Amino acid sequence: MEKTFIMVKPDGVQRNLIGDIVNRFEKKGFKLAGGKLMQIPSSLAEEHYGEHKEKPFFGELVEFITSGPVFAMVWEGENVIATARQMMGKTNPSEALPGTVRGDFGLTVGKNVIHGSDSPESAQREIGLFFNGEELLNYEKNDQNWLY
Ligand code: IDP
């Protein structure tokens, strides 16, 4: 089953949004494979956001994402990568629709509450950066027959 990497950013943790965000993914029908509260070291932040290294906001981005705890998760389910991106809303919260995480909770692109992998390649890469195999659980869940 497809997996994606989702992270509540430091602003979301400070603003008490972990529960709301987890709730949205649970209610949608996705299955939690792993999750942890962690403080990201600069080296991991720079690797995670490597594709933005040349951007003017790179320094600010690394500083922000390492500024406090994040809640990192792996969610699993049919088409979860693309669906999670829709549930997050556009990168800039001012363009994100109501009903999306960024549309409901964010105001600025620098503090947009949530990260989610944007493709199967980045999902695989990001899951590998943040979780080791033992932290991802493979277990039976009783709701699956009512979802699939
Ligand atoms: P995404 O998070 O929606 O995938 P990306 O383009 O991959 O968006 O950008 C990564 C993160 O970098 C964004 O979530 C946002 O927090 C930050 N970011 C993107 N553009 C800007 C900008 O112009 N100024 C400050 N931060 C930005």
The value of Rg in angstroms is 15 Å
Number of individual domains:
1
Number of E strands? 4
Roughly how much helix do the residues carry, as a percent range? Answer: 40-55%
Strand-and-helix sequence, N→C? Answer: EHHEHHEHHEHH
Q: Which residues sit in consecutive blocks of at least 5 with pLDDT less than 50? A: none
Mean pLDDT: 98
Bound molecules: inosine-5'-diphosphate
Tell me, what's the shape? globular
- How many H/I helices? 8
In the CATH hierarchy, the third-tier topology is known as: Alpha-Beta Plaits
The top-level CATH class is Alpha Beta
| Secondary-structure-derived class | alpha+beta
What does the main sheet amount to?
4 strands, antiparallel
Lateral strand order in the biggest sheet: 2-3-1-4
Modified residues (Phosphoserine): 122
Main location: cytoplasm
Active site: 115
Subunit structure: Homotetramer.
Q: How is this fold's topology laid out?
A:
Elements (H helix, E strand, L loop, with lengths): L2 E6 L1 H5 L3 H11 L2 E8 L3 H7 L9 H8 L4 E7 L3 H9 L12 H5 L8 E3 L3 H11 L13 H4 L1
Antiparallel strand pairs: 1-3, 1-4, 2-3
This protein binds inosine-5'-diphosphate.
